[in-house]
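I had to read the description of the data format several times before I understood it. The format is easy to grasp once an entry is in front of the reader. For illustration, here is how one protein appears when written out as sequence plus structure tokens:
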Amino acid sequence: MEFIQFTFVLVAALCAIYYSGQGPVIMRKLNELVTGKKGCSPVADLDFVTLHYFAGRGRGEAIRMMLEEAGIPYNETLFTKETWPKAKKEGIESGLFTFGQAPAISTPSGLHMVQSQAIAHYIGRATGMECDCEQLSHCEVVALGTEDFRSKLSKIIYDPDFSVQMRDEYIKTTAPMWLEHFERIAPSIQAEDVAYFGGSHITWVDFLVLDVLDANVEFAQVDMGRPLVAILDKYPKLQSFYNQFRVRPKIVAYLNSDRRMPYKLPKMPAVHKQESA
């Protein structure tokens, strides 16, 4: 009889939770209690990571900053233009480079993963820097937006005919358009703490946004015979996010360390070389 009563009460409670719309919230809290990690779909801890990438910031930088913030020990296998073809062939054969691209990560437990955003998302799931279930779609939108923004800058700096004029057009037109988009969805300015793009706590998406903003800040400060531009000045929410994120203790330690590679363009514009001759 007691078992029947208990079952009835349990079913009634579950129905009440379901119809109240609080089921996902309660399940998330239970999940946090069990795993000790925030976010929608936590996975096992990462004890050590090897990052396979080129000797530069690029698509590896958000991953590095996440590992630094989470305190996960890591090392790097770095490629140059000369060593990449051999490493690529070996990586495809071994299954490390699924699509013949870097970055990739590997772990002692046998995890291999490629695609920079998939890697960042997985690290987020392993470290409690995952978005809440209700925010997953928003986080995916923001993440894909950072990729679109990044591609606009990559398109000109890797163009064989990259010129100062192309730089000027990017600074004048392309970057402001994308910065305006991100300013609209940026979290409100907070005086004492960072407001996050992915909800109430720091997530993998914040590192993608930080990285694409940082790439644009650095690009606008490269001397190409034109006035240097403080590219975030007209975007107060992005400026606040960028500034406050960069004073997080572990991020500061990384930025000031020799692990942080210098910002470097693939090549300087041809026009700049002519002007300097």
The radius of gyration is 22 Å. Residues 272-277 have pLDDT under 50 and may be disordered. The chain has three domains: 2-35, 49-127, 133-276. The longest strand covers residues 49-54.
